[in-house]
Design brief:
The protein has one domain (3-198): NagB/RpiA/CoA transferase-like (Rossmann fold, 3-Layer(aba) Sandwich), CATH 3.40.50. With 205 residues, it is an alpha/beta fold. The protein is 28% helix and 20% strand. β7 and β8 form a beta hairpin. Its cofactor is Mg(2+). ATP binds at residues 10-14.
């Protein structure tokens, strides 16, 4: 498929997924937040992670905030991304309270900047996504920040995308710069997808 057709396909899929998320009932979001938090805690336990990177979820995304509160209380060092104008992600641990709106319109933590390479020291990376396919290919939201980060890492700890259940699909359109993930976490399950994830002893979904 020509590159312009792939890009158009991606835009159409993202628009459909955004609309689906906007229309999700509040009571469903509340229930799925509780379920997702339990799955994320289980993933941390399964991988014996003592440090991780995650992100502050936007209102229509799977809600990571209760999990982040739990991680802070549990003493798990958590890095949160700060988007830079040059297209890179910087990192901070934040203070658990202060938030800003980034130049991209995303919620971000405020705090001391630790530099882009701080991500190399974590045991687990949690990333947002609009959808992921069964091969592990991730469809992001079109800005390229997380693909660039994953593609430039010196080390590669386990990488899991956080999704709603119906966003794990058979196939997503792929471009050369797109980076895969090792698995997904949804409200109902943890799904290992990469070959190396099979060696981590995660329960099969």
């Amino acid at each position: 498929m020509p590159a312009d057709e792939i890009a158009n396909h991606k835009r159409a899929l993202r628009a459909e997924l955004r609309e689906r998320r906007r229309n999700k009932p509040f009571v469903t979001m509340e229930r799925e937040t509780e379920q997702l938090t339990a799955q994320l805690k289980a993933l941390v336990g399964d991988l014996r992670a003592t440090s991780l990177s995650a992100y502050l979820s936007a209102p229509t995304e799977p809600n990571t905030r209760p999990f982040l509160n739990w991680a802070r209380e549990a003493g798990i060092r958590t890095l949160l991304p700060i988007s830079r104008i040059d297209g890179l992600l910087d990192w901070t641990t934040g203070d658990g309270e202060t938030e800003i709106v980034s130049h991209l319109g995303w919620p971000e933590a405020a705090g001391e900047l630790l530099g882009p390479m701080a991500i190399d020291e974590v045991d687990l990376i949690l990333v947002p996504a609009s959808s992921v396919d069964r091969s592990g290919m991730r469809l992001g939201w079109g800005k390229g920040y997380f693909d660039k980060m994953l593609g430039s890492m010196g080390k590669w700890p386990p990488v899991f995308a956080v999704l709603f259940d119906d966003e794990l699909v058979d196939e997503v359109p792929r471009e050369r710069h797109d980076e895969p993930v090792d698995g997904v976490v949804t409200p109902s399950r943890i799904v290992p997808l990469s070959k190396r994830s099979k060696a981590w002893g995660l329960p099969e979904a």
